[in-house]
Amino acid sequence: MTEERRSFLRNGWHWIRLAAIAVLCYPLLRFVKFKAPRKPRLVKVEKQLKVGDVYLDEDFVLFHDESETWAVSRICTHLGCRLNFSEQDHLLICPCHQSMFTPKGERVAGPAKRNLPRYPVEKLSGENAKGFVVSL
């Protein structure tokens, strides 16, 4: 009888240690899955834009009209190709698969299913300040 009792206590101790390890590892596993929010990257465009002007950057396209200034991503939502701006058609066109987007980033045609992301734009203010800041 005592041998059975010892093995029962020994096995119980193993289960208690396993449960303690699981309880201690749970916060660590939650932390591993944690994703910190990404800080926006600020890009300064030191160029004065006239009404109707378009500024092409590597990551975004900046548009300026009478009422507002806005920026849209220059990366196609289909497979990540860099978009070109057609001044004749006034469209952003993907050279890889011919997806087309309006200057506001809305999908017009092609295999892309989503619109382009828009980025907030702030106009620089001050005496000698000219240009814009785009938050990517």
Describe this structure in words.
The protein is of the alpha+beta class and 136 residues long. The protein has one helix at 2-32; strands at 42-45, 54-56, 60-64, 69-73, 84-86, 91-93, 100-101, 107-109, 118-119, 121-123, 132-135. It is built from 1 helix and 11 strands, in the order αβββββββββββ. The strands form 3 sheets. A 4-stranded antiparallel sheet has the order 2-3-4-9, with no helix packed on it. Strands 5-6-7-8 form a 4-stranded antiparallel sheet, with no helix packed on it. Strand 5 (84-86) and strand 6 form a beta hairpin. The chain folds into 2 domains: 1-35; 42-135, 3-layer Sandwich (Rieske Iron-sulfur Protein), CATH 2.102.10.
Topology:
Blueprint: H1 2-32, E1 42-45, E2 54-56, E3 60-64, E4 69-73, E5 84-86, E6 91-93, E7 100-101, E8 107-109, E9 118-119, E10 121-123, E11 132-135
Antiparallel strand pairs: 1-11, 2-3, 3-4, 4-9, 5-6, 6-7, 7-8, 10-11
Classify the fold: give the CATH topology of the largest domain: Rieske Iron-sulfur Protein
Q: What proportion strand? A: 25-35%
Morphology call: elongated
Helical percent range?
A: 10-25%
